Amino acid sequence: MKLTTEQIQIIETALNDKCNFKDFDDVRIELVDHIATEIEQELETNTNSFEQAFVKVMTRWNPMILPRTWSRYENVPFMVSKLWKRLDWKFQFSTIPLAALFSYIGFQLQEKDISIYLYLLPFLTVGIVSNGYLIYRKITNKVNSTLSMYSLQKIYQKTFVMLAFIVMNIFFFTAGIEKSIIPVFWPTIYISLLMMGKAWIMHKHLKIENQLLKVM
Amino acid sequence: MKKQQQLYKGSLNTIIMKLLEQNGKMYGYEITQKVKEITAGEMNITEGALYPALHKMEAEGFLDVEMDRVDGRIRKYYKLTENGVKETASRMEELENFIRNMQTIVSPNLKPSF
Fold first, then answer.
1. Strand order from edge to edge, sheet including B25-27
2. What mean pLDDT value characterizes chain A?
3. Which residues of chain B neighbour A29 with C-beta distances below 8 Å?
4. Nearest CA to A117 among A33, A187, A185, A44?
5. What is the C-alpha separation between B13 and B19, in angstroms, rounded?
6. More confidently predicted of A209 and B5
7. For residue B77, which of A19, A110, A205, B25 is within the disulfide window of CB 3.0 to 4.6 Å?
8. Which chain B residue shows the shortest CA-CA distance from A90?
9. pLDDT (0 to 100) of residue A6
10. Residue B59 to residue A79, Cβ atoms within 8 A
11. Is the dihedral of CA B80, B82, B86, B89 positive or negative?
12. CB A162 within 8 A of CB A191
């Protein structure tokens, strides 16, 4: 027995209201379909009412989708936060040693009388361009996917931090105190690389958003 | 049965990729049912394991998605990307080696069929 549009709407509302799926269009539509199919199966095999089947199926799903309060991503559905934590290891935490390595190379070049600002310029350029792209997507995005939301989370705060480091670098540069750049050198490279990574995820998965736009 | 599920866990991604290679494109519910059907109910992929695995492989670029409207709702299908096809071949080779080695250890006189 196929579910009616109203019954499908009930499933979608439950996912949005109880599990915070409203910002994750791709996963939400996937779960609506899966849960609806399970309820249809339930109605066919156990001749329950829609309400009984809905409660039964949702009770089974709850541990996999309800947000966990103790999680780093508190209001994010558990299934999504699981993926985000994996991505953190790949993009956020692995950037720490990478930025440290680039900083070390920069200091080595400085000792050979190569300007540290010249070395920093490509990182800043990439960081600024990536940041601009992410803000553009944030403003223009009509649908949200799990990966775009990951790329765009706290984007304005991160932009502020990045701008603060750029201002500090410009200050040290104009003041001609190259040695003072050391404390801001690593964070500037780190945030630039981070922006680059997030812009890359965003761009690579634009296809999902285009598909969502077509069907929603 | 629970212990057996633990053994399957490490091969979950390979199983999903192999099914997608054989069937072209599949959606989440279909994958769980197909596994149940092939293994005559012996293996049960839970949704809590299936979707994180699918989303991870999608993020890694091994899977592509396609969406269609079916029965008044949107269905998200997964299919292998070019990288996904290569990865499936490599993972299947690893899995076959693993099975061969396990079989040699468990029953040394029995020759594996592949």
1. B25-27, B73-80, B63-70
2. 88
3. 67, 73-74, 76
4. A185
5. 10
6. A209
7. B25
8. B60
9. 93
10. no
11. positive
12. yes
Angstrom distance (rounded) from CA A169 to CA A142: 36
First to last CA, chain A: 24
Architecture of the domain spanning B2-106: Orthogonal Bundle (1.10)
Given a cut of 90, whether residue A114 has pLDDT beyond it is no
Which of B63, B65, B76, B77 is the best residue to mutate to test the A interface, defined by the most A CB atoms within 10 Å of its own CB? B76
Global pTM value = 0.84
Q: Do B59 and A27 touch (CB under 8 A)?
A: no
Residue B44 has which token pair?
């049960």
Rounded CA Rg of chain B: 16
Choose the most confident range, by mean pLDDT, from A42-51, A179-188, B92-101. Answer: B92-101
What are the residue ranges spanned by the domains of chain A?
A: 5-65, 94-215
CB-defined contacts A:B, below 8 A: 74
Residue B48 near residue B57, CB atoms below 8 Å: no
Give me the interface pTM, i.e. the ipTM. 0.83
